[in-house]
Amino acid sequence: MRPVPFLLSICLIIGYKLLNHFLEKPYYALLIFVPIVLLIGLNLVLRRKLKYKDWFIKHLGFLNEKVTHSFKSEIPAPLLFDKILEQINDSETTLYDFKPSTLEILAGNSVGMRTWGENIYIDINATDSENPTVNLTSVTVFGIVSWNKNKENIDQFYSSFEESLTI
Amino acid sequence: MAIIVNLDVMLAKRKMKVKELSAKIGISVVNLSILKQSKAKAIRFTTLEAICEVLDCQPGDLLEFVPDNNSPHV
Predict the structure, then answer these.
(1) What is the 3-class SS of B8-49, one letter each residue?
(2) Nearest CA in chain A to B50
(3) How many of the other CB atoms lie within 10 Å of CB of A106?
(4) Residues of A in contact with B34 (CB under 8 A)
(5) Which of residues 29-88 of A touch B (CB under 8 A)?
(6) ipTM value of the model?
(7) How confident is the model at residue A144 (pLDDT cuts 50, 70, 90)?
(8) pTM for the complete prediction?
(9) Chain-chain contact of A167 with B44 (C-beta, under 8 angstroms)
């Protein structure tokens, strides 16, 4: 069986059945649930590309939980970019996309029992060349609640990055 | 930065590239570059030992203390 977000799927099915039962016409329930299912499908397709970053961070903001964290580093931006890529490859997080020209990285965690997965957008702001700023943004792919998983993942990513600077 | 890592100096003396050292000691080029630029938070004894062994040098050849004018004197 594929790893589906089991709890959310069950909730959707129960919700659909309840609406179907209480509404006068059965297609009312479909009118509510088809857009939700389509949106989930669309998000799962779009999530792996950096060019759809705004879709998840801005346009879909009201439907997603978003956690951000910023920190400064003394490592020059291009080297920091490579270091973060290496860190992602060494972790359980999957690297989806990256753009060296804009120093942007998209990584993510896959679908699990309680979540449709999350995207982690990392961008390095090199305006201060001595101390570039790293902005980490974790967004749920679908769902306004992440059960604090977003924050845990961001914190874990940051602490493992700090640890990896002991060479 | 009070502790300076002179890895680039030792690499130049031994006419060795970072990539070659990386392959010999099993530490990534990125991490060695961070170390070379004195941007690492700390260095493990195992790393120091491996570098010293390959570059045939002493830890003192790699690390140098340069007093920082801004740091408070203890």
Answers:
(1) HHHHHHCCCCHHHHHHHHCCCHHHHHHHHCCCCCECCHHHHH
(2) A167
(3) 24
(4) 75, 79, 83, 165, 167
(5) 74-76, 79, 82-83, 86
(6) 0.84
(7) low
(8) 0.79
(9) yes
